[in-house]
Every structure is written in C-alpha cells, then in structure tokens.
Amino acid sequence: MKIVGTFKIHFLMRCVWMTGGWIPLMFTSIRAQQIEYLTPRLIDLGRVQETHVIEETIRFVNMGNKPITIDQVRTTCGCTAAQIVGKEVASGDTAFIGFTFNPMGYHGVIRKVITVMYEDKDIPEGKFVVQADVFSDLDVEPRFINFGAVQKSADAILSEYFTLENNSKEPIHCHKVYTSDERVHVSATSMVIQPGKTYVMNVTLKPENTGRHMYYVHIQTNNKMKPRINVPIFIAIQE
C-alpha cells in the first residue's frame, strides 16, 4: 500500500580536515516518522440527498518507531469531526477519525476540507477533501434569474427560463405558482411533475420602472421537504 505521508529525515554529520578536504567521521540517521493514510485524500461521497447526513471515517497507520499525538482536527463548515484532540497513536497502530457531513442548505457539487494536525510540528498536516453532489427532492436550475441592465421600455417583454426537476420517488404537485409583482409573469400557475421528470418554466418581465429591482417567483408544493420555493429575479432598468 502506498505511503502518502513520509516525513523529513534529518542527518547529523561530523567532519575533520585531512589532505584533500573534509572527511566525514560519523554519520547518524534519525529514523523518520511515517504515516500511511488508508483513506484517499479525495473522499467522494457521490450524489447525496440534501436531508441525508453522512458519517465517514479517516484512517491512518503510524508506521514510525514512536507514538504520535493528534493535536487537532480542523474542518470547514458542513463537516464536523469527532473530538479526538490529544489522542496518542502507538507505533504500528491504526487511528480512526470519524466525521459527519451535513449537506442541508447546499446544492450541486460542493467540497469541504478536513485537516489533521499533529503535536510534532515536523509531521506535515494531513488534508482531505470531502466532495459531494447535493440534490433535493425538487431542484431549481438556475437558482435565480438575472436580466442584467436593460433599457426602460413600455413595449418590450424580456424572457428567461428555469427548470424544476423532481428527484423524488413520488409526483410533486406544484399547486400554486405566482409572482411578487404584476409586471412579472410565469408560463404556468400550477403543474404536476412526475418522478425523474423536469418542468421548464418561462418567466417574462416588462421593464417599465427604472431602478434596481428584485422580484420573486413563489412556488407552493405538496412536498414535505420542499413545501415552498422562492426564485429571485434581478434586473436594473435604465432610462
């Protein structure tokens, strides 16, 4: 198995001057501490339901000739590592660092970093990337619409689209779809999306009032995990 955490070897050398130059008299090697990580540096969790909290473990073997101590484990938001600060790992023993991954509130491919640090600062930190493709029962893509900067016009009608994808195993009834402003219109006020199917929603807007505006498309559903979805719409209307 590949060793992916081999640490520096320090050399001590004593020399004396003799004819022809410096000659080494003594050569001493201090054996390096070695760590063999059994967990890949990229922990790919694949497609993960937004509500599914995952528990995983980072494992490594102390291949050196003396114990090592885990100083701390740092994580970015979305990951929580077990509290194992001060844990000593004897020579030849395997360490287990448990962590949980909570994807709630995330969407699409996300990456979080877990860093294992040791009391012996000569031992490099072990960094692991936790990756997941997070989805929910009802996904919206894109998550917002931005019309950008446009000229004011009483006759123009701007048009954009977003999709609703049913990732659940049951039909999702979007029983009410409406907007926050009368100048914004949607192509349907209700629909049923079958499992594995996608619905394309058309959004139109009349750029009549100057200034920066934020509107919403509101969607009410029968899905317990996604009872209400709000899709923001941004636009800057110029004279």
SSE layout:
Layout: E1 5-6, E2 10-18, E3 21-30, E4 34-37, E5 42-49, E6 54-62, E7 68-75, E8 79-81, E9 88-89, E10 94-101, E11 108-118, E12 126-135, E13 138-141, E14 145-151, E15 158-166, E16 172-179, E17 184-186, E18 191-193, E19 198-205, E20 211-221, E21 228-238
Parallel strand pairs: 5-12, 14-21
Antiparallel strand pairs: 1-4, 2-3, 4-6, 6-10, 7-9, 7-11, 8-10, 11-12, 13-15, 15-19, 16-18, 16-20, 17-19, 20-21
- The count of DSSP E runs of length 2 or more, i.e. the number of strands, is 21
Distance from first to last alpha carbon: 68 Å
CATH topology of the largest domain, by name, is: Immunoglobulin-like
Write down the domain tally. 2
> Quick check: average pLDDT?
85
Strand content of the residues, in percent? Answer: over 45%
Secondary structure: helix percent = under 10%
The CATH class name of the largest domain reads Mainly Beta
For the biggest sheet, the summary is: 5 strands, antiparallel
Order of strands across the widest beta sheet?
1-4-6-10-8
Q: Name the structural class.
A: mainly beta
Task: List the defining traits of the structure above.
single chain, 239 residues, mainly beta, Immunoglobulin-like, 2 domains, five-stranded antiparallel beta sheet, five-stranded mixed beta sheet, 21 strands
